[in-house]
Design a protein that fits this description.
Layout: H1 3-12, E1 25-26, H2 27-32, H3 53-61, E2 79-83, E3 89-92, E4 96-97, E5 105-106, E6 114-122, E7 124-131, E8 137-142, E9 152-155, E10 160-164
Parallel strand pairs: 1-6
Antiparallel strand pairs: 2-3, 2-10, 4-5, 5-9, 6-7, 7-8, 8-9
């Protein structure tokens, strides 16, 4: 394990009580334990030349795109939603649903491919989630989704790319 990853994991240990209880992997677990996705050791600024300004602002400055602005809201085909930065698969289209919020929403992520942390930017606590590989901000998870899980993974469309089922997934970016 790289020294930086180990130190990051140790630094997050005191925050464990603040992490959400959702099915994704917490930041501490993604960094330190046996998750199949290894975090990249790449500074956020290195992604700037690979992304649009809007995607960079959402992924690495934790901005939010305007509701209703993503073409992915209307995407109905079978396929996979991948991180717009590193191309890690995050959601399967079978878990996408229309939440009425104006952002692409899913009932669950691909196991182990997201990491969560508590966010207090709107005063009240929310559970924010990131790509477990590059750390790019994706959105927030709420407990008002449909059964059986009751989760709404509300994602910024600009932080995702959709790959139709009949196309191969692109190689992961490093």
């Amino acid at each position: 394990m790289k020294r930086r990853s180990l130190l990051r994991g140790i630094a997050l240990l005191p925050t464990l009580p603040l992490l959400g209880s959702h099915a994704s992997t917490s930041l501490a677990a993604a960094v330190g334990a046996g998750v199949t996705v290894s975090p990249l050791d790449k500074p956020h600024s290195a992604w700037r030349d690979l992304l649009s300004p809007e995607a960079y602002a959402v992924l690495f400055e934790e901005d939010t795109e305007r509701a209703g602005s993503s073409p992915l809201n209307d995407e109905k085909r079978a396929g996979t939603y991948i991180c717009a930065a590193c191309y890690l698969p995050l959601f399967d289209s079978q878990h996408k649903y229309e939440s009425g919020t104006g952002w692409p929403s899913f009932t669950q992520p691909i196991e182990g491919h997201t990491a969560t942390k508590r966010d207090f930017k709107l005063i009240f606590p929310r559970t924010e989630y990131h790509c477990a590989r590059c750390g790019g901000h994706q959105g927030h998870v709420f407990d008002d989704g449909p059964p059986p899980r009751g989760e709404r993974w509300c994602n910024n469309g600009v932080a995702l790319r959709f790959i139709p089922e009949d196309q191969p997934l692109p190689a992961l970016r490093s």
